[in-house]
Structure formats: structure tokens, C-alpha cells
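Case study.
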Amino acid sequence: VRRAKHTPDGVVLRFSDIEADILVTLAEQFVQLLGDAEDPEDDPVLERLLPSAYRDDPENEAEFRRFTQTDLVDQKVAGALGIVEALGNRAADNSAEVTLSNAEAGSWLRSLNDLRLAVSVRLGIVDENYVPPDDDETFTVYIWLGMIQGALLDEVDR
Amino acid sequence: VADTLERTEEDTGLQMLVEPDRPWVTIVWNDPVNGMDYVVWVFTSYFGFSKAEARKRMLQVHHEGKAVVATGGREEMERHVYAMHGYGLWATLQKDDE
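After joint prediction, the assembly is written out as follows.
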């Protein structure tokens, strides 16, 4: 069964029951993490999700953050909650299917990317020479998030 | 006495007045996580670049470590940087002095 398919109603994304559960759990953890986003320097994941806009300009950086960070956090939280909502209330069978409009697909692409970024920081991926540990569950999740994102990208681009 | 917020806005306005001709740039930096196809999609859907142009800039980020994706006024560049952060890209703005 294909992961993603372009239809007249939008892009249809398919997940197994277990996959949907994992994605919902990740998205919920993400929302929780961003709930503590007051001081991003306290957590490297937050630092990566809410990066600096100005290099070497602390004054402008502080001002930029003061005026934008709440909105940025709200946007990321809303995107993750969209995933939770779409997959969390599914019927108890063995698969999950969501149909996404263009705008929703864009929001999913961003949110999947946010989740992937968060996982990458936990894995310690800082450059292109990263070597994954053998049989690492977190790394498997990282690759899997990239596959979902890639499948969705292929269909959105049509 | 003006409060801090008003003073800051005045300072910003003054800076724009003194240096009207120096444009700002939005720079996207390389990172090992964001996929190439994703970055191309961000550049086409947000900036409206053609696929070829988006690919060119993505490859520039990948190979040279960074690429300028927009040039203009400071407020506009702040909007772009904010949007890029929304997409999870590593973007900053600075005066175009290189």
C-alpha cells in the first residue's frame, strides 16, 4: 500500500496503527516541550527550533525574539496539534488515513520537519559526518519521519 | 520620558533614516538535517522561485554553507527570517556588506 497518494480531494497519507500512535506521541511531546519555550537557551532542541535571527547582534536579536517568538511557538504548536487531532481520534482499527488539503499538507510538512529536527538534536546530529549507533530506535524514528515527509513531498509537488 | 518600547522603535527608525541605501539580506545556512527536496519545496512555495532557481540556491546552501535568498529592507528580511524559522530552516538577516 502506498504511503501517500494524490487524489482530487487532496493528498491521502496512510499509517499503520502503530505508526499513528508513535506520531501522535511525538507530536504531543513536542507540544509539551514548546510549552516551556520561555528560555530557549535552556534546551538545545528549543535552540534549534527557535534559532537566532541576528548573528553577533544581541540587541536586535533580543528585540526580534521579543516580538516574534510567541507567534512562532504558537504556529509550531498548532501544526503539531493538527497531527494529534487528525490521527488521535481515529477509529480503533489497524490503520489510519488522513486526507490533506494543500494548506494542510504544507502544515504537515513543516510539523514533520520540526519533529525530525527535535529528534536530530537528541541524536546529536551536528554535521554530515554523523554515524548512527547500531539498532538505535531513535535513529529509526528519525529515518521514518524523513520517509513520511519525502512521500508527502512527492505528492504535493505534482 | 518614553518607555523602552517606544525608544527602541525610534532607534530603529533613525537607523533606517541614516542608512537608507544599504540593503539587508536573508541568509539560509546549511544544516545536516533538512532534506534537499524539503528545502527546494520551501524555496518554491514561500519565495515563489522556479524549481530550477530553488534547486540552485539549495545546492549553494549545501555546498557553500549558505546562500542569500532575499535582499531588501530590514523589516521585510525579518519577515522572511521569521517564515524560514517556521519551516525549520536556519536563517539569519544582516546588512549586505560582504
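Observations recorded in class. Residues 58-88 of chain A form the longest helix (31 residues). Residues 82 and 104 of chain A are 9 Å apart (CA to CA). We will return to this complex in the next lecture.
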